[in-house]
Amino acid sequence: MNSVNSMAIVGMLLLLSACGGSADTASEASAPVADAPDAAAPSTGAVADPFAAAAAGDAPLCTGADMELADAHHKQYPKLVVDAMNAEVKPTEVEVVRFMGIGTWSAVFAATPIADPGWFVFESADGRLQFKGVWAGMAEEDDRQGLIEWAAGLGAPADFAACFAETVIS
Question: What distance in Å separates the CA atoms of residue 69 and residue 83, rounded to the nearest whole number?
Answer without folding.
Answer: 20
